[in-house]
What we know:
The structure holds two protein chains of two kinds. Chain A is α+β, with helices and mostly antiparallel strands. Chain A is 18% helix and 34% strand. Chain A folds into three domains: 6-211, P-loop containing nucleotide triphosphate hydrolases (Rossmann fold); 224-309, Translation factors (Elongation Factor Tu (Ef-tu), domain 3, Beta Barrel), CATH 2.40.30.10; 316-419, Elongation Factor Tu (Ef-tu), domain 3 (Beta Barrel). In chain A, the strands form five sheets. Chain A has a seven-stranded antiparallel sheet with strand order 7-15-11-12-14-9-8, with no helix packed on it. A six-stranded mixed sheet of chain A has the order 2-3-1-4-5-6, with helices on both faces. Chain A has a six-stranded antiparallel barrel with strand order 16-22-19-18-23-24. In chain B, the strands form two sheets. In chain B, strands 3-2-1-4-6-5 form a six-stranded mixed sheet, with helices on both faces. In chain B, strands 8-7-9-10 form a four-stranded antiparallel sheet, with no helix packed on it. Chain B is α/β, with parallel strands linked by helices. In chain B, helix 1 (8-26) crosses helix 2 (38-51), helix 2 (38-51) crosses helix 6 and helix 6 (190-199) packs antiparallel against helix 7. The termini of chain B are far apart.
Amino acid sequence: MTRSADLLRFNTCGSVDDGKSTLIGRLLYDSKSLMEDQIEALERSADITGAGQINLANLTDGLRAEREQGITIDVAYRYFATPRREFIIADTPGHVQYTRNMVTGASSSNLSVILVDARLGVIEQSRRHACIASLLRIPHLVVAVNKMDLVDWSEERFLEIRAQFEQFLPRLDMKDVAFIPVSALNGDNVVDPSPNAPWYGGPTLLGHLESVHIGSDWNLSEFRLPVQWVNRPNNPKHAGLHDFRGLSGQIAGGIVRRGQDIMALPSGFTSKVREIWTLDGSLREAFAPQSITLVLEHDIDVSRGDMLVDPAALPGAGGDLHARICWLHPRPLQAGRKYFLKHTTQTVQAVVTAIEHRINVATLDAEPGAPELAMNDIGEIRVRTSKPIVYDGYASNRLTGSFILIEQGTNATVGAGMLHPPAETAQPEYRDFVI
Amino acid sequence: MSNYYLDHLQYLETESIHIMREVAAEFERPALLFSGGKDSICLLRLAEKAFRPSELPMPLLNIDTGHHFPELNSFRDARAAELGAKLIVRTVEAALAKGVAVQSPGQVSRNHLQIPVLLAAIEEFRFDCCIGGARRDEEKARAKERFFSFRDGFGQWDPKNQRPEIWNLYNARINPGENMRVFPLSNWTEKDVWEYIGREKLAVPSIYFSHRRRVVRRHGQWLPVSELAPPKPGERVEDLVVRVRTIGDVISTGCVESPANSVADIISEIAVARVTERGSRADDKVSEAAMEDRKKAGYF
């Protein structure tokens, strides 16, 4: 198979009036990703609402309610491509519900772009965005210092903002941070290099997005396959399919090879990989995040919600969980409440046994004594599940280390949880069982 | 570069397969909406990738307006038969006869009539989930759509009250009478769809390729001339080499002049195209919020 460009997912965050929508509009416009009818529609709305000036923000603010109120309600996704890469932008609004929306938009991002208004410098909102990116463990961060035209492209001002931000960096645990001076309104350093900043020798925003290394953003060291669907053709007419029993799922971590030993958890049954089945033929090896179907040597009891792992790199397991949670719902989280907890491919009942503290999202400091977590709060909680789950710490695997909480009755998704590293590795239920 | 990386199509594919399997595992009576159009052709291939060597664990469903291009329906039937899939077709014609759907006076297009027919089919078969081929890049209201789009007892979409989707954890829980629409191609663009059709060597209906057709110029578009849509007085019928970029019904689907007669030609044409594919759909031009309003009423 010939391979083409890879895919970078990023999200943009800024406060109201930081020029975030304008920046996205500029990226699309200058990279020639906009079509004539879209530009025509922009011009049409400019005549009606914008006193004749084209408003690039109208490109992203898609719903009528948003255009009327001049706000962005929810996460909007935008797509564009250059010859080097394809891009998915999650545009997350900066107003009151920003934490909830940013968590939603950024959870699968490789990179976050934080907009800072050059006139205002690093404000509390900028620190919040950086902290959320750090809590979500987004691998790459770009600080776009916008509206540089309004500070006369002052290098001194840019360096000052950079220093303000760097002062704050050590507590974030972010390895890759880039600073880029831009003017989204005029297009400087967004797609085309700016003649106004001869003192800046770095790439443009698009240049950086095209070249940042994302190859190691997935965990490729510990094999994890949450079983999603048991594939049983049960076809009496076809001898080869009569006994076919495949375990389908998306690899959440690591690499799996034909012939390798695997263990099913929580049972602890072991077997070997007989075949890595795909519609395109059998594979010698497969890796995260491929979707595959494994056929094992032994007919061991495995169903949806179980996890196949490398027995040499066991995950943790337990029913008493310690996690950070971002609360997403207007009805606050209180200790003692019961929820459904969805983790990888299984849903179990869970009770939040304690709220340890709230996390100040602008400083990452603990604020003890919080009786409840309100919407947009992030806090540390203890959860007990109705049966043990098999998991990793979020820091080592975003997919096996995360969960959502679902309110019983309304079925609303109310919380997004990130698990702390497990205290104990998985103890197979049938330790002495040998096939 | 390491061998352990996926290009953008492989990434989109694995994401979509994951979503397909979540549907099969979490719902009791799902259906896959298959029209024979390019997006649903990709959906079907993804279903094969997700579920083979088993049979597809869900029937295919198509709402036929009676204004479909004949090429599309014959392609739809042939493809379903080839895959051994169960195909359910419900028609606007029958719904009008039964009074399930009522045409507004003077209205020719049956686009909006698909809504009551779809909702009736969901009720008839008690489908709890319908997989559709909508993409977020098609239209601004779609850009805010979720993979798992919750619909209430009336099939309505409430953009202000959507479930957050975080990591790859999709909340598929619904109460009786409620319904989910799932869009595995949410992150795909028009270009991705054609590249995938090319990579997977998938057949598509002939009207996507260049052919001669009688058309008239109306509202800046070339619209096909047919019994249902005769030329209006003063319009000149022209015989042009055209193709369609997106397939609605024969009344509202604009044609583009194009010599493209292979998937590779189409991909290069899209790469330099200057209008979006929905730019050729008269039904979206009614108002800036046309799609938002239809989705709130229960559209796909």
